[in-house]
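Our working data are protein records whose layout never changes between entries. Getting from the letters to the tokens is the skill we practise here. To make this concrete, we reproduce a full record directly below:
***
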Amino acid sequence: MVGSQGTSQFYGQQIPDDSDAVLLAQIPTNDLMVIDGMFSQELLKEDMEQCEQLVLPPATPMYMLDHMNKTPTLEEYHEPAFDFQVDLNGESSSKSSWMFSSPLNKVYVKMGQTCTFNVSYQSLNYQDLFVRAMLVCSSPEDMHHPVFRCENHRRSDNTIPKLPEELQTHVMRCYNPSAQYVGVESGIAYKDRLAILIPLASSTVDHTSLSVSLGFVCQNSCRIINRRPTAIVFTLEDINGRILGRKALHLKVCSCPKRDKQKEEQGLVPTKRKSSDALQVAPETKVAKTSSAHRHPSGSKQILLEKLASIKKERSPESSPTGRKHHHRRHHTRRARSLTPYSSQELVDQTATTISVPMPSVQAAVKVAEYAFQVVAGELVRCGGEDERKNLAAYLTQIRRLQKTLKGGHTASSSDSSSDSD
């Protein structure tokens, strides 16, 4: 066994003797134990309450950072724990430097003017948060186009002393002192896009609001944006870049916000058709009875016959004595008529679309000509202009000529064949 002296030397301590043990045993320790127990229980209870109130920071899995290598999106994202919101003070500024359209969810702002956005979020004590403002092309086919300043407006920055070079490429300018400008001009992925990062202060208040004042130093009509529709995307992010909330507002930088707003809002209103009341006739007006031609499909045939009757048939000058008598006078006045065989032929030659269709027999060709006559006659019934009616009547004249020619040839060929058989 090891003696007490060796043990004290081994640990570098001196073991108390029997007299010291007696003195320690005489000290009353009951009160001390009770006080120590009460203190331990109260401290443990307080620590447990604090742990219940404390929200541990969520882990950031890698799949939540996939957006960093993709093009930005306008799809809104809301996480109730952070309750990220973005809005404006009203729908216009006092000096009409910007206007907001609720139906379009769009902001119209003058170049060089400031527009202030109200950003609110749920503040948590444990982590640092940032607001990222990014200007992007809003059309799906243009989302891959980076948005940066044109060369013409960049030259105007040469008059501003001590302006950082990396700031000249940004279309947006933030007037918050803690704003940081990130991204590159040629950036396409989310992490490389030109944007503004604004650190947010932690607070014990449930909701914290921040005013973000932005100015715009290039217009949508400039060469780089090239009149593409644009939008400004606000995202709430943690220090790792995880998106905790996203809001998007369509935005147009123009010279006259009021004019452009009214013009685009009018484009949303559908064209109103004439109401049935507008077609009603006044009580004093007598309305003629509707003919049966308008009530029955067969009536269209009667209308066709009535309109075709107005087309004068071609008559030979020798067909009647009166025609032979006045043949010479009519020959000189033929060009003054609205519709003559010569003028109809010229009109058809100028506007016709001619096709050549080989047919197996003369009878089939006659049927095709008859069908063509019906098609043009239907167009004549439906047309409303006088010039168009004359044009279609000329086509009908030429089709009738073709029909007579085909029928005459068919009769001659049939007579020849009969004589040959005899």
